[in-house]
Amino acid sequence: MQSHSKSAHDKHTAKRRWLDTHEAGYHKSMGNRQIQMIAIGGSIGTGLFLGTGGRLEMAGPALALVYLVCGVFSFFILRALGELVLHRPTSGSFVSYAREFLGEKASYVVGWMYFLNWAMTGIVDITAVALYMHYWGTFAEVPQWLFVLCALGVVATMNMIGVKWFAEMEFWFALIKIAAISLFLIAGVVFLGIGTPVAGNTTGLHLITENGGMFPHGLLPALVLVQGVIFAFAGIELIGTAAGECREPEKMLPKAINNIILRIGLFYVGSVVLLVLLLPWNAYQAGQSPFVTFFSKLGVPYIGTIMNIVVLTAALSSLNSGLYSTGRILRSLSMGGSAPKFMAKMSSQQVPYAGILVTCGIYVIGVLLNYLVPSRVFEIVLNIASLGIISSWTFIIVCQMRLRKAIHAGHAKPVSFKMPGAPFTSWLTLAFLLAVVIMMAFDYPNSTWTIATIPVLAVLLVLGWFGLRKHAQEVKQEQQIHEAPGSR
């Protein structure tokens, strides 16, 4: 038995050594300032700035509770990812961890599902950039495709130059978002503290109790919103990819991850609580940022222009992150034999340019499709992206559970940064993600059709797997040589 245990330990150690070779060539140039901002940027996006208005209209003050619950589970997912990162920092993130603990097939599935998520999200982001630019009358006559190409060109160029440029762009994008939400929080607290009426409404708790309470439309609308809100936090897992190019991941990542739950609590929950205490919840509506609604009631000049700059920044930030993450994920897949061989190529600047260019090509094609297909079909395609993020988060939790098992068996070293409450919180998070999928199935028509596409995606993944057999066999032979006794 002891001999078998030692053999399993040696095999796992050899596999980790082979996986570490995947990190060769990356620059470890991200500092604490940039890592902190990437963590913040991943948790704040258009879901907060634009989506909150429609969600308040649908669920009322209960939205604060929905944000809180989804934020807690997002934190558990990040802590699970943090445990994996401290075990072995890698730009392949959960794709590499799935390869280590679950095998190449699992790595293949989670990698391509995550790529699908960013491919669909990026198409919407790049289209949104053009629409936001048309907000200003000066640019009304400029063709939409021109804005699309300019935005894609700038973001792609920054990603191609090097990781430091990506990180610097993300730093400033995040800073703009934080400044905007901080301005609202400060103004809201001042108005609430002084008791100054807003648009003739006295501020305070009575705005909740006098307008139907916490659940003005009942519990069901709040439950339905969970699936939309959980996707507003999509992007928080980007910090796991960034860990592979971080100077001191063991020191920087735990602090950044722990701070995320505080920011979610402050920016999401705090903002909704303030919004419903400053104005009746039914003053907010879909299609308009609730922050614009509030400041417009105060008569603040140019608030529409200011908020348009913020949402434009949020869209560019998401586009920037999508190119960064897909480039690294596709390279990790290729290194394991789960993507075409050319996607493993690196530039002289240590950038996985092949994967970035492939993603850029899909974005351009996607914008063309956006003009051609009916809006409902496009929404269904976009909803498919949600399956990508759910599968990615599920694999993070499963890999964390397998890491704990490997540590218990002595096949991996213990880590100091552990997921709190595991394994109970691990199972609870998996149950929550399953519940989200079930709720999607009953959200007719778009989300129902999204769930119905799972068999189609499964067929495509199977066909892709068999199409990559030759490359996968070559990689497997290379791995066996690397793991052979005496090899280093």
From TrEMBL:
Keywords: Amino-acid transport, Cell membrane, Membrane, Transmembrane, Transmembrane helix, Transport. It is a multi-pass membrane protein. The chain crosses the membrane at residues 37-56, 62-86, 107-133, 145-166, 178-199, 219-239, 260-281, 301-324, 351-374, 380-403, 424-442, 448-468. It is found in: Cell inner membrane. Residues 35-476 form the Amino acid permease/ SLC12A domain. GO terms for cellular component: plasma membrane. InterPro entries: AA-permease/SLC12A_dom, Amino_acid_permease_CS. One of its GO terms (biological process) is transmembrane transport. The keyword Transport applies. The keyword Transmembrane helix applies. NCBIfam families: PRK15049.1. PANTHER family: GABA PERMEASE, L-ASPARAGINE PERMEASE. Belongs to the amino acid-polyamine-organocation (APC) superfamily. Amino acid transporter (AAT) (TC 2.A.3.1) family. This is L-asparagine permease.
